[in-house]
Amino acid sequence: MQLMHIKAVNEDLEEYKKGVELLMKQRIVTAVIAAAVFLPIVMYGGLPFIFLTYLMASVGLYELLKMRNISLFTLPGLLSIVLLWIFLLPKDYQKFLNDFDYTKVELAFIVVLLFLTYTVATKNKFTFEDVGFSVLGTIYVGLGFYYFMETRDAGRVYIFYSLFMIWATDSGAYFIGKAFGKRKLWPEISPNKTIEGSIGGVVCAVIVAALFSVFTDIDASLLQLFVITIVLSIFGQIGDLVESALKRHFNVKDSGRILPGHGGILDRFDSLLFVWPLISFLHLIS
């Protein structure tokens, strides 16, 4: 009986190992394909880059609304997309709004009024809370990706700085946390993250910042870049925790399945949706 139990445990371990290997292969293949599509468009910029940003933001919003069971192909879903696209409108394309004497804020408020009108039309089946979730979620995704475009407009170096800095934060937090982590960072939200890993992620991000300061033309002193990087690394981790909290609240494992082995757009860009606006707010770019 004991031998049978040991055999069953060994079989389960083998299945687990095979599952992990398959997941790692999926992650690598997806990462290579995504990089082959994403990076050349980011390098080129222009309309292809704007189109890619609109596409990723729209998919991210779809994933967010799906958590609350709001379909994109309903009136609230369509209003959310309209609001998203208003927020995403780049500076160079806002001139036609001026011709009609409207601003982005005014158009956005019109959409909010339509949302509130819909709560009355549905006799509160679509509630004020649903409106709040839709509007706040759209601001979160829309402004995050808007500042993705703003960061790219300031120079490709700032996009690559943000990407490598967050990758270093994530990798450092994972490996240092795995090796030295003892104290949980926020177990109610993300039980595997540790304080030691979080600090390690910040240290790795600062190392990346030092390399960018030496080998690129990034427009910041070493001290300024270190301070900004520490803030961005911390808030990048907060962005990751926000996404984890959302998924835990709505009881979903991943935000989507568009990136096999990685999850959805929000799973991959949760940290950067916090970082890209802050790059501008902290005046790393003007």
UniProtKB/TrEMBL annotation:
GO terms for biological process: CDP-diacylglycerol biosynthetic process. One of its GO terms (molecular function) is phosphatidate cytidylyltransferase activity. It holds the Pfam family CTP_transf_1. It is found in: Cell membrane. It is a multi-pass membrane protein. Belongs to the CDS family. This is Phosphatidate cytidylyltransferase. It comes from Pseudoneobacillus rhizosphaerae.
